[in-house]
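Anyone? Bumping this.
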Amino acid sequence: MIRYSLLSLIVSSSLLFAGSLSGEQAGQKGSAVSASLLEKLSGELKGYMQRSGPIGALNFCSQNALNLTDQVGKESNVTVKRVSLKNRNPINVANAEEEIILRRWAELQHSGQPLPSYEIKQRNEEYMYYKPIVINSEACLKCHGNIASESPLFKEIKKMYPEDKAMGYVMGDLRGMIVVTLPK
Ligand code: HEC
């Protein structure tokens, strides 16, 4: 009886160990998932911009960006999203906790300090991974910069997203963040 419970203790603790993720591993996994998402999104975006111009690419984003994001998460058994304080898609609005982080990062930027590559928070059952998304290419400004209000692109954006807040950015601005939820 004693031997049995000892054995089960060893088995269950080793199972626990096998399933548990360290903070460092969570950082690595979060970074890998983020890199994969950014690579997929920017690859598709580039292709659509070349083939069918900003309006074609806009249609691609509005129809596929969310699915693609979910799919990248599923492939790694995590959940992924992109959120922003000035969001275009209403679904991508930052929640209260995310807002605090984004505001802190925006202040860092204002005071001329570098943004962290990512941050990790530990919860009971999971790690939360947060990575800043910065306007790092002129291509982003096509749809998130100062767009002339009489242009067809502006009208299309306003038609699709009447509540759009995601214009007026300049190079280097903090655009939002990737949030990855990693089960322990
Ligand atoms: C062709 C137009 C277009 C270009 C170019 C573009 N975006 Fe977007 N972006 C969109 C649309 C449309 C959405 C809303 C759909 C979605 O992704 O859920 C969006 C959403 C986002 C979001 C999610 C938060 C939100 O506001 O909904 C982020 C972050 C983002 N874009 C960053 C970027 C960055 C960084 C670049 C440059 C690498 C870029 N975008 C280039 C059209 C574009």
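Late reply, but here is one note on the structure posted above: The radius of gyration is 20 Å.
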